[in-house]
Design brief:
Blueprint (H helix, E strand, L loop, with lengths): L14 E5 L4 H5 L2 H10 L4 E7 L14 E5 L8 H17 L4 E4 L4 H9 L4 E5 L7 H6 L2 E3 L9 H6 L20 H8 L10 E5 L11 H13 L3 E4 L5 H12 L6 E3 L6 H9 L3 E5 L2 H8 L4 E5 L4 H4 L6 E5 L26 H12 L1
Parallel strand pairs: 1-2, 1-4, 2-3, 4-5, 5-6, 7-8, 7-10, 8-9, 10-11, 11-12
Length: 358
Amino acid sequence: MTASDLSGKHPAPTRILVIKLRHHGDMLLITPLIHELKQRYPAAEVDVLLYEETREMLSANGDIHQIYGIDRKWKKQGTAHQLKQEWALLQALRQRRYDLVLNLADQWRSAIISALTGAKTRVGFAFAKRDSLIWRKSHTLLASTAQHNRQHTVEQNLSILQPLGLDIHDAPAKMGYTDADWRQCEALLPEGIRERFVVIQPTSRWFFKCWSEAKMSELINSLSAQGHAIVVTSGPDAKELKMVETILAGCPDARVYSLAGKLTLRQLAALIDHARLFIGVDSVPMHMAAALNTPLVALFGPSKLTFWRPWQAQGDVIWAGDYGSLPDPDAIDTGTSERYLDMIPTQAVIDAARRLLA
């Protein structure tokens, strides 16, 4: 169905607002929806409202016209400051005169903002926990969530289009960066490996999603012995940097270089895009690798694989549940020091990497 098919009940919009107030990975996984909107409505301007700290995930996405951010630091500066900033944001959104608002979020704030934009068509999800008159009145259409427990997060996002007569189940994700991002990243790499390296991201902000340091060291030593240069990355958190330090201590003779904590998200995207292979755990960089079509080996533990497997991935997803019993993801203590991925044999990852590098 094309936009012209909707010209009766739902004419093609010229200005669209997509609302998603979640984490970095969640933001990357709305890009298939944004791509589909531009395919269906090529003349439309698509804006996004997000949490300010996630802006970099979408700031180089050419399908997006304007990004608006809610800064969660506003609250720390006092109620008066917060109200002033939120009022200014609302005024800016109202001035855009949106034809269509797609509210992917489940927060009351997102519903109220949707209503106050004044858009003629406002689509939200019929979340069971939001079954109330206020939620229904904040939207003109509600999309069913009946299939969400069996759908990938990307498919869940795309299903918001169903009330508009668009039944879409597949669209590509997109992670953008600039030439300057790559040049800045390239300057940190040693000569001779700038187009011939493997990126390994061993860390996650939740350590229960991580493989052991010893197994990561063994993997790096094996790949190095096969002649591959390794670039290790991580976030800037002290715990992640300590984990990388321990891993590198187990690789004294390997051809390995650390850019841990040194890259912005867009620079990391540039690095991954130029890599021969990405190896990592269930984390934002894994989703970035999939979006960039970089071959990957993704290590998964007690996450909801149906929801969070790397979308459009080229490569292998290795699930710890194939090697032993895992706890229910909803029962996990996210602060635990348990390493559930340790059930994955080192050789399984080495073999997958070798196959993809052949």
